[in-house]
Amino acid sequence: MTKIWRKEEWERAEEKINPPYYRKSIEVTDFIVEYEMGFLEGNIVKYVARYKHKNGLEDLKKAEWYLRKLIKKEEQKDE
Question: Are 18 and 30 in contact (CB under 8 A)?
């Protein structure tokens, strides 16, 4: 059965999914979609965009992890 959400429930869910630190002059998801980024690229942008407002160094390390994966993927193309 499909649940019908009340406005308040929707707003609370929206706040968890798309918190204020993702909504500046451009939403991070809009930027990722506009530039047709893949999973790895999108996660790099996401973690860098939010690190000051959420998990600090932990988010930068996550971005680094995804960046290393992307670099490895690109290097394998050249082999």
Answer: no
